[in-house]
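Supplementary Note 3. Input sequence used for the single-chain structure prediction.
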Amino acid sequence: MDVAGLERLVPGRTYLFVANHQSIYDIPILFWSIPYQLRIIAKRSLGRFPFLGWHLRRTGHMLVDRRRPDRAAIFSWASRLTSKGLSLIVFPEGTRSRAGRVGRFKGGSFYLALEAGMPVVPLSVIGSRHVMLKGRLATYPGHVRLVVHEPIDTSGLAGTDPKAFGERVRQILAPDAESDVPQDGVHPRP
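The predicted structure, written as C-alpha coordinates, is reproduced below.
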Protein backbone atom coordinates (compact mmCIF):
# COMPACT_ATOMS: atom_id res chain seq x y z
CA MET A 1 0.00 0.00 0.00
CA ASP A 2 1.42 3.34 -1.10
CA VAL A 3 -0.12 6.73 -0.35
CA ALA A 4 0.90 9.94 -2.13
CA GLY A 5 -0.28 13.50 -1.53
CA LEU A 6 -1.17 13.56 2.17
CA GLU A 7 0.95 16.70 2.49
CA ARG A 8 -1.77 18.54 0.52
CA LEU A 9 -4.16 18.26 3.47
CA VAL A 10 -4.33 20.82 6.27
CA PRO A 11 -4.44 19.14 9.70
CA GLY A 12 -7.64 19.93 11.59
CA ARG A 13 -9.57 20.95 8.48
CA THR A 14 -12.84 19.25 7.57
CA TYR A 15 -13.12 17.81 4.04
CA LEU A 16 -15.43 15.91 1.74
CA PHE A 17 -13.24 13.13 0.36
CA VAL A 18 -14.40 11.82 -3.02
CA ALA A 19 -13.04 8.48 -4.26
CA ASN A 20 -13.51 6.16 -7.19
CA HIS A 21 -14.91 2.80 -6.13
CA GLN A 22 -13.26 -0.46 -7.25
CA SER A 23 -13.80 -2.80 -4.32
CA ILE A 24 -15.38 -3.23 -0.90
CA TYR A 25 -11.74 -3.08 0.17
CA ASP A 26 -11.66 0.65 -0.70
CA ILE A 27 -13.34 1.51 2.59
CA PRO A 28 -10.70 0.00 4.93
CA ILE A 29 -7.98 1.35 2.61
CA LEU A 30 -9.27 4.91 3.03
CA PHE A 31 -9.92 4.62 6.76
CA TRP A 32 -6.39 3.31 7.28
CA SER A 33 -4.67 5.80 4.94
CA ILE A 34 -6.40 9.12 5.59
CA PRO A 35 -5.38 10.53 9.02
CA TYR A 36 -8.80 12.04 9.78
CA GLN A 37 -11.91 10.96 11.64
CA LEU A 38 -14.07 9.84 8.71
CA ARG A 39 -17.70 8.95 8.13
CA ILE A 40 -19.20 7.58 4.94
CA ILE A 41 -22.45 8.22 3.17
CA ALA A 42 -23.51 4.75 2.07
CA LYS A 43 -26.50 3.14 0.41
CA ARG A 44 -29.22 2.14 2.84
CA SER A 45 -29.16 -1.51 1.72
CA LEU A 46 -25.79 -1.95 3.48
CA GLY A 47 -27.69 -1.54 6.74
CA ARG A 48 -29.28 -4.96 6.21
CA PHE A 49 -25.96 -6.82 6.42
CA PRO A 50 -25.33 -8.52 9.77
CA PHE A 51 -22.80 -6.66 11.90
CA LEU A 52 -21.96 -4.19 9.08
CA GLY A 53 -25.31 -2.41 9.27
CA TRP A 54 -25.22 -2.24 13.04
CA HIS A 55 -21.65 -0.96 12.96
CA LEU A 56 -22.39 1.74 10.37
CA ARG A 57 -25.36 3.08 12.34
CA ARG A 58 -23.64 2.80 15.73
CA THR A 59 -20.54 4.70 14.63
CA GLY A 60 -22.40 7.57 12.97
CA HIS A 61 -22.26 6.77 9.26
CA MET A 62 -25.18 7.86 7.05
CA LEU A 63 -27.29 5.28 5.25
CA VAL A 64 -29.24 6.86 2.37
CA ASP A 65 -32.09 5.63 0.21
CA ARG A 66 -30.57 6.48 -3.17
CA ARG A 67 -33.97 6.54 -4.86
CA ARG A 68 -35.41 9.07 -2.39
CA PRO A 69 -32.59 10.82 -0.52
CA ASP A 70 -33.75 13.09 2.29
CA ARG A 71 -31.59 16.18 1.72
CA ALA A 72 -32.66 17.83 4.97
CA ALA A 73 -31.66 14.76 7.00
CA ILE A 74 -28.35 14.48 5.12
CA PHE A 75 -27.53 18.18 5.71
CA SER A 76 -28.44 17.90 9.38
CA TRP A 77 -26.28 14.79 9.82
CA ALA A 78 -23.34 16.34 7.94
CA SER A 79 -23.59 19.62 9.87
CA ARG A 80 -23.43 17.76 13.19
CA LEU A 81 -20.41 15.75 12.07
CA THR A 82 -18.44 18.59 10.54
CA SER A 83 -19.10 20.80 13.59
CA LYS A 84 -17.25 18.08 15.53
CA GLY A 85 -14.33 18.17 13.06
CA LEU A 86 -15.22 14.95 11.24
CA SER A 87 -14.69 14.58 7.50
CA LEU A 88 -16.91 12.71 5.05
CA ILE A 89 -16.22 10.17 2.30
CA VAL A 90 -18.43 9.57 -0.72
CA PHE A 91 -18.18 7.20 -3.67
CA PRO A 92 -20.14 9.16 -6.29
CA GLU A 93 -20.16 6.37 -8.90
CA GLY A 94 -22.74 4.62 -6.74
CA THR A 95 -21.29 1.18 -7.47
CA ARG A 96 -17.96 -0.59 -7.80
CA SER A 97 -16.09 -0.88 -11.09
CA ARG A 98 -15.08 -4.39 -12.18
CA ALA A 99 -12.71 -3.23 -14.91
CA GLY A 100 -11.18 -0.21 -13.16
CA ARG A 101 -12.77 2.47 -15.36
CA VAL A 102 -14.21 5.37 -13.38
CA GLY A 103 -17.96 5.60 -14.00
CA ARG A 104 -20.14 8.67 -14.26
CA PHE A 105 -20.50 10.58 -10.98
CA LYS A 106 -23.90 11.24 -9.45
CA GLY A 107 -24.37 14.94 -8.73
CA GLY A 108 -26.08 14.49 -5.36
CA SER A 109 -22.75 13.55 -3.79
CA PHE A 110 -21.49 17.09 -4.42
CA TYR A 111 -24.59 19.08 -3.51
CA LEU A 112 -23.69 19.01 0.18
CA ALA A 113 -20.12 20.30 -0.31
CA LEU A 114 -21.17 23.01 -2.75
CA GLU A 115 -23.95 24.36 -0.54
CA ALA A 116 -21.86 24.17 2.65
CA GLY A 117 -18.64 25.50 1.09
CA MET A 118 -16.78 22.37 2.21
CA PRO A 119 -13.45 21.67 0.46
CA VAL A 120 -13.54 18.59 -1.79
CA VAL A 121 -10.53 16.27 -1.98
CA PRO A 122 -10.40 13.91 -4.99
CA LEU A 123 -8.89 10.51 -4.15
CA SER A 124 -7.66 8.02 -6.75
CA VAL A 125 -7.70 4.40 -5.60
CA ILE A 126 -5.60 2.20 -7.88
CA GLY A 127 -5.49 -1.60 -7.83
CA SER A 128 -7.95 -2.46 -5.05
CA ARG A 129 -10.18 -4.37 -7.48
CA HIS A 130 -7.39 -6.98 -7.76
CA VAL A 131 -7.18 -7.41 -3.96
CA MET A 132 -10.90 -8.01 -3.43
CA LEU A 133 -12.89 -8.84 -6.55
CA LYS A 134 -16.45 -7.59 -6.97
CA GLY A 135 -18.86 -10.33 -5.94
CA ARG A 136 -16.33 -12.19 -3.77
CA LEU A 137 -15.44 -11.87 -0.11
CA ALA A 138 -11.95 -13.37 -0.46
CA THR A 139 -8.89 -11.15 -0.51
CA TYR A 140 -5.82 -11.70 -2.65
CA PRO A 141 -2.27 -10.34 -2.42
CA GLY A 142 -1.77 -7.20 -4.44
CA HIS A 143 -0.48 -3.66 -4.52
CA VAL A 144 -2.80 -0.72 -3.95
CA ARG A 145 -1.98 2.94 -4.44
CA LEU A 146 -3.90 5.94 -3.14
CA VAL A 147 -3.35 9.40 -4.61
CA VAL A 148 -4.62 12.36 -2.60
CA HIS A 149 -5.18 15.22 -5.02
CA GLU A 150 -5.18 18.95 -4.27
CA PRO A 151 -8.29 20.03 -2.29
CA ILE A 152 -10.83 22.05 -4.28
CA ASP A 153 -12.13 25.15 -2.51
CA THR A 154 -15.91 25.31 -2.86
CA SER A 155 -16.52 28.52 -0.93
CA GLY A 156 -18.66 30.79 -3.08
CA LEU A 157 -19.83 27.89 -5.29
CA ALA A 158 -23.32 27.47 -3.76
CA GLY A 159 -25.79 27.11 -6.61
CA THR A 160 -23.21 25.52 -8.93
CA ASP A 161 -24.53 22.57 -10.95
CA PRO A 162 -23.50 19.51 -8.86
CA LYS A 163 -23.28 17.23 -11.92
CA ALA A 164 -20.92 19.62 -13.71
CA PHE A 165 -18.82 19.99 -10.56
CA GLY A 166 -18.79 16.20 -10.17
CA GLU A 167 -17.48 15.83 -13.72
CA ARG A 168 -14.70 18.31 -12.86
CA VAL A 169 -13.72 16.14 -9.87
CA ARG A 170 -13.97 12.98 -11.97
CA GLN A 171 -11.57 14.46 -14.56
CA ILE A 172 -9.01 15.05 -11.78
CA LEU A 173 -9.05 11.59 -10.23
CA ALA A 174 -9.77 9.35 -13.26
CA PRO A 175 -6.32 9.46 -14.94
CA ASP A 176 -4.58 8.08 -11.83
CA ALA A 177 -7.46 5.74 -10.92
CA GLU A 178 -7.37 4.20 -14.41
CA SER A 179 -3.57 4.09 -14.67
CA ASP A 180 -3.53 0.29 -14.26
CA VAL A 181 -6.31 -0.38 -16.78
CA PRO A 182 -5.16 -2.05 -20.01
CA GLN A 183 -5.16 0.31 -23.00
CA ASP A 184 -5.89 -1.44 -26.31
CA GLY A 185 -4.98 -4.81 -24.80
CA VAL A 186 -1.63 -3.58 -23.41
CA HIS A 187 -1.18 -3.64 -19.65
CA PRO A 188 0.52 -0.53 -18.24
CA ARG A 189 3.63 -0.98 -16.17
CA PRO A 190 3.21 -0.56 -12.40
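The chain has one domain: 2-177. The chain is about 30% helix and 15% strand.
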